[in-house]
Amino acid sequence: MANKRSGGGGGLSPVQQAAKFLGVSVLAGAVMAGIALPAAGALGLAAKGSVEGFDDIPANLKRPPLSQRTTILDANGGQIAAVYSRDRTVVPLKDISPFMQKAIVAIEDSRFYQHGAIDLKGVLRALNQNAQSGGVAQGASTLTQQYVKNVFVEEAGDDPTKVAQATQQTLGRKVKELKYAIQVEEKLGKKRILGNYLNITFFGQQAYGIEAASQRYFSKHAKDLDLGESALLAGIVQSPSRYDPVNDPDEAIQRRNVVLQRMADVGDVSQADADAAKKKPLGLKVSKPENGCITAVKGAGFFCDYVRDVFLTDPVFGKTQEERSKLWNRGGLTIRTTLDPKAQESVQDSVKKHVYSSDEVATAVTLVQPGTGKILGMGQSRPYGFKGNDTQINLSVNHDMGGGAGYQPGSTFKPIVAAAAIEGGIPATRTYDSPYEMPYPSPVPKCDGKQWVNTDGTTLTNENTSEHGTMAMKEATAKSVNTYYVKLIKDVGICPVLKMAGKMGVSRADGQEMLQTPSIALGAQEMSPLTMASAYATFASRGTYCTPIAIESITGPDKKSIPVPKSTCTRAMSEKTADTINTLLNGVVEDGTGKEAGLSDRPSAGKTGTTDSRYAAWFVGYTPNISGAVWVGDPAHKRKMFNITIGGVPHAKVFGEDTPGPIWKDAVSGALVGKPALNFNLVNIPDGGDKPHGSHKGGDKPGRGGTPPLPPDFIGGMGNGGAANGGPTGGTTDGGLTDGGAGNGGLTDGGLTNGGMTDGGPTDGGTGGNGQANGGNGGWPQG
Fold it and tell me: What digits encode the pLDDT tens for the residues 383-400?
């Protein structure tokens, strides 16, 4: 072949043809420039050493990393969604119909198996035709050259500048294309080039590669294409928009018939078979391409988006945003996630049952696994989409992961305050006189050593006027008493609470720093359901917080594993503190504001929450093996939940118990079907408590006073300690020598040390006046 110079030329010598060709065609001129390379190389033979750097073929031309669809799976291996930047499924040549292989060669490069990287006969034919027409009537690119160009286009991705550079008709680009084409021919061979070409080529209608094209136009695999179907697809390649069979079937039929005739002319099929195929209709069976998280099943579109956002933001997948985006857009990944299909289905069923997509307000639910951080379920009432009441905002997550600005969690934040208090040494028996209304306590220490001061006398109230009196943490938590918790944060300090929140992964949904005010105790700062579910999982796992994760494993197009982010588990509090909180929150669902959320078949715990003006209502709860958060409200923070109908149920006023509670109960119940009913490690929390300045002044009820009176040398004070909190039951353990005594004093906490001579002594407590009234634990607020 190296010595052949045929192809016709109207009497012109090859040199004259070349000169005229160069004058009228940049493309053909580039081809001639390629011919100017060493003869052996130009003909597809050995070319090593002929040009500097000529042997340095990029590795991606051997097996280019073609962008293709990524499949996202649930924890059991079921498909959640398929996403891609380009609809492509790479298949080996053996899985491509022989008709298709012959059709593409016949119409694009019929001498593909006879020539090298450059077809001299084709070049001369193009020279002659273009010289006669005075323009570029024919090109001279071989199928190999086209493949090389497609590789450059693929490398350019969606960058319009790079795409333009990869396709520009310049001499330099053509020479580069020829150089690589020669090397590709030598190193890959014809069959592999053909297979790569059919997998990389664009067939219109968003279909890249023959498998995607076959599915798009005929809803079948590429290996099953018949003669007419193969001819149609092969004809599209030259101009996907012009020969689009969906939008212009007549043009497509004419082009298909040209391909069929060409196949007959080169001997790939008989004339009779070609003629028979020409008479058939196109036979389209179009499948609409489905792409992205909009295809997700069981309402998992938002979780699908979350997985993508994790991939694009986590340094595990690349140090820079560009690296991560390139890997994601290349696709071909199989991502197995943590999503439990049973839990996800249960979440969606509960959401649909309790809140309609057309309601004025919405709900979002997230379930996580304590001890692992795995996200088991994530759903919401506003559908994933682009029309009507649809949204792409994930109401379960923080703003930087596709969510909104978050929602005030209300009283669901109180257990975090309680955990900080208990971890800091304040017992769950600590009591405060908790009025219905009071000013925010002041001053309260902050993290910077300064004090928060209530300069304008801002007040707060409890939910109901009936909620007041002296109470300990158990009662205050069960009834969700606001005034108790702001008094508690006064003793704890804001900084320990913020530190505990940080250890439990709690942060504002908008990414801003938490404000250091006592109102943090009442959940006044916006957070997301995923944050709260993960935080409460800390209680369920007896004090260990695990960062939430959504991805279990990833395999790449080469079937090799890709590293994924791992959950980081750290101890946020002692087991004893967690057990105490579990006891308090178990009481909430058994005999408190969360009764409607309690599970009948297994131990559970949780906390209700509502915000001022009813902009949001919450229930966050857990069992030892699952934790979940439910939020209900207006994402726009405009609709107050008074006189409102949600899920067909009218409400004069929405509470955390009556709407989020049942959603949580149904979602968690379904998710736990078949799972073991595990128990909490509950502790005994006495009902009486220690009373710094309670209202009880005597009596003989067990644990709340009675006779005999305590010894007179207990300087904690008699007024609120002796007969009120000592007595036979409180005696030496809870009210006597250890924690209580005369006014919760005793020798240890309220007596000589904290309530007696030291902290409540002559100055604040003394032996009379405030000494007797406020001696226990230093009293409130003096001692």
Answer: 998 888 899 999 999 999
